Every structure is written in structure tokens, then in C-alpha cells.
Amino acid sequence: MKFSRSTTTKALTSVLALGLAAACAPGGDDAESADGEKLTLSVVSLVPGSEAEAFAAFDERVAAFEAANPDIDVESEEYEWEAATFASQLAGGTLPDVFEIPLTDAKTLIANGQLANLQEEFSTLPYADQFNKELLEAGKDDAGEVYAIPAKSIYGVALHYNRALFQQAGLDPDSPPTSWDQVREYAKQIKTATGVPGYATIAASNAAGWQLAAATYARGGRLQEVDGDTVTATVDNDATHDHLEFLKALRWEDDSILADTTLSWETANQAFAAGQFAMYTSGSDIYNTLVENYATTGEDYGLTAIPLDGDDAGVLAGGTMAAVGAEVDEETQAAAVKWIDFFYLSNLLDEEQAIANAEVRAANNQTVGTPVLPIFSREQYETANEWVAQYINVPLEQMEGYTSVMFDQPVVGEPSVKGQDTYAALEVPIQSVLTDANADVEGLLETANQDVQTLLDEG
Q1: Can you give the residue ranges of every domain in the chain?
Q2: Which residue, of 58, 185, 204, 294, has the greatest Cβ tally within 10 A?
Q3: Chain centroid to CA 3: how far?
């Protein structure tokens, strides 16, 4: 959902950051519109409800961009991608010029003619050929032209846990669970010892299916098979079945799961930050949200790898792409690519930009150094972290369960065709096992599989 909020960008609070950004940002003075007036570029900022410090850090970066590009005025709007509202916002033209989309959505939006072709401006970026090829492919059309650019963070799904609740239950927070059986054992022990649910799963909206997909991959299953132009739904696989039975057992045998069927991505994060449950799975970058939105300090936060079980087990990887609507004019498209370059990507590739960005974030008590997967190469990712080492403020020693294996775990992309529709179809099975002790998992998955296959056949 999006709410309007114009950022206050005329007053700088960090002269140093501005100077560094102005010195190295590309394109300085060629974005003036055809009539000689300043070009106004609307962009997404932060999730509604973010902390004041997060907005302060964002506003400083906007001010630095405007100083480096004096012919562009940036107007920002709070934004959170939601499946239920995004399509109508895009169709109605109410999104900012630059908006964010999940990796899973780009191909469909391109095919529908809803995104601007950014190939010409993208090709001028000095690092255009350095992207992870698979990530960049997600934003290309059949002719190989770029319509959406990998941005922000690319995550691998991981297990997040509350170290304080572990300690209260007599568990070692430095030895988090490494198997699904252990997750169940730990969840039950935490609930028995503390009265707080040991586990939770997102159960509402497409995010519910997203996390069931992550668990399916982690148990060796897949949700679809692609053979050329033929796509077959495999939602009713053994791995998905096993995880639903796992959730059902936590609910009805152990009473160790937070049985809240309204938990969305946002409310699950909020509940976890408030200590209302001990463990859940989500993207490895979720610590950023916990800090930006809920003022988490990190003292009790723990991050470890999602348990992998089975020969084909893998980690669901996903992330965010920056895109521009098809109706946006060419001058604004050019300004949009400058913003994407400056705000999302330059701090991964340019040392001065990286330091400027890290200084601003650290000064405003925002995260620097949260573990994510690289948009470019592992080498470049590690180099960029070295540039900003003095500013890293996330509790890396409490994240070693993930960081020690993040480059070694097999990575699997999200469903490539009708991904969001597939996720939506999995909401009913998840909610059913949390609300009905006699839920027929096999029947639920059979129905979901039929529904997904129908959508796939429709194209």
C-alpha cells in the first residue's frame, strides 16, 4: 500500500555525505526537461510506519542526489508492495515514476506492456555487464532488453530467532536448530518454559504461500516444472505436504505455534519484534525492516540458515527490482535510471558512494552490513563490505548460523510463471491446518494444484 509523503530535502544534515555523493554521482546536469524547467521525479521511499531515523537517512540521500543532479526534483512516497493493491495502482497510474516489484512479477508485467523499456539508459551504466546474469534476466523481455533492474537487496530465506526466549527456555542461542525436527523440539520447549509460542508462519496474503514455497524448497520439493513452453504445477508434492503436516503438528499436537491466521509479512515482523513468538522464516534481509520499522536494537536477535532436508533441498532466493511504468516519458525514464543508479546500486560498486551511504545510515541508527546475497559478484559484495567495515552496526556474531553457509547453500529461484498466483493458492492450505485439527492436507493440495494448473494453462 502507498501513502503520500513528500520528503523534506532542502536542508542537509550531512555536508560530508553530500560532498562525496556530488563528487562521484553520474550524469550531474543533463536531466533538465525540454521546456527548461526542473524535472520532477517521483520515487518510492520507505514502508509506511518506518521510524523517523529511517526517513531522516532517506531524506539525506535524496538531498545528495538533488545536489548532484540540480535539474531533478525528487518527490517521494511511502510504499509497500502488496499483491492485493499493486495491480490496480499500476493500471490506475497512481504509482510513483520509480517503484519496486518482486523478482517474480517482472516477466509478467513486461509481457503485459506495463513497464518502460530502460535498455538505452541501462546500457550507459559503467557496470551494466557486471550484474549476476540470472538476476538481470528476470527483468528482460524475450529480446533481451532490460525493463526492470535488480535493486535493493537480494535475499535467501533464513530462520530468524529470539535469543532471549532461547535462553529463558534453557536453549543455547549460539546453537540454533539445524533441522526441522529440531525446530519443532525447540518450539515446544520454548512454549513449555516461557508460555510464548516457539514458532510462527505467515498465514495471510501471498506472503503465506511465499514462505510455504521456501519450506518446500528447503525440504527438496518444487512448485512447478518448466519444459520449454509447458509449465506443470507440482504444488501437491511430498515436501509441501510434509511442511503442512509439520505446521499442523505444531498447532494441534504441541500447541507451540502462534495460531494467528491474520499474520501478514508486516504483522509477523511486528509480532516478532515485540517478542510474541521465537522463530520464523523470512528473507535474510528482514533485520533491516525490524530496525527501520520497529526500532529493534539487535540485542536479542539471531539469524541462522533455514534447515535443508533432502537431495534437492535448496534456499528460496528472491528480492526486489526497480521499474518504471510504461506511460512515463523518455526524459523521466532517463532521470529514473539515474536515481536507481545512485540510490540502489552505486553504493555497491563505488567506494566513495558506499562510504557516504554508510555514514548517513549509521548516523541515523540504520543498519549497515545486514547479510544479503550479491547483486553483482561475491567478490564485489565482500569488497563493498570492506569499504564500510567501520560503519557496520549489525550483530554479525549473532548471525553466523547464516553467514557461515550463505554462499554454500544451493539457491533456487521463485516460481518463474504465475509465481504470485501460485503463492495465493497456498494460503488456504496454510490457514486450514492452523484452524482445523482434521484438515485434509492431501485434499487441500490437490485442489490448490488444480487451481494453479488452470491459471498456468490460461497463460
Answers
A1: 2-154+318-391, 155-316+408-458
A2: 58
A3: 20
Side chain identity at residue 160, one-letter code? H
Cβ density class 406-439: b for 16+ within 10 Å, e for less: beebebbbbbebbbbbbbbbbbbbbbbbbeeeeb
> Cα–chain-centroid distance for residue 136?
16
Which tens digits make up the pLDDT trace of 251-278? 999 999 999 999 999 999 999 999 999 9
Position of cell 521499474? 323
Query: What CATH number is given for 2-154+318-391 in this structure?
Result: 3.40.190.10
C-alpha–C-alpha distance, residues 250 and 184, integer Å: 7
Report residue 10's pLDDT band, with 50, 70 and 90 as the boundaries.
very low
Q: And the C-alpha cell for 46?
A: 520507505
CB 317 within 8 A of CB 156: yes
8 Å CB contact between 44 and 77: yes
C-alpha cell at 119: 535498455
With cut-offs at 50, 70 and 90, classify the pLDDT of residue 11.
Answer: very low
Distances (CA, A) of 88 to 3, 84, 407: 15, 8, 38
From residue 153, alpha-carbon distances to 100, 216, 286, 288, 369 in Å are 11, 22, 10, 10, 11
Do residues 5 and 56 lie in contact, with contact meaning Cβ atoms separated by under 8 Å?
no
Instruction: Please tell me which residue, 314 or 33, carries the higher pLDDT value.
Output: 314
CA-nearest of 192, 235, 149, 183 to 415 is 235
Amino acid at 351: E
CA distance 305 to 98: 33
The beta-carbon contacts of 87-95 under 8 Å, at least 24 apart in sequence, are: 89/2, 90/114, 90/325, 93/325, 93/327, 94/2, 95/2, 95/325
Nearest-5° angle of CA 237, CA 407, CA 390? 135
Q: Which CATH superfamily is domain 155-316+408-458 in?
A: Periplasmic binding protein-like II (3.40.190.10)
Q: Residues 419-448: what's their mean pLDDT?
A: 97
Residue 115 has pLDDT above 80, yes or no: yes
Q: Distance from CA of residue 272 to its chain's centroid?
A: 17
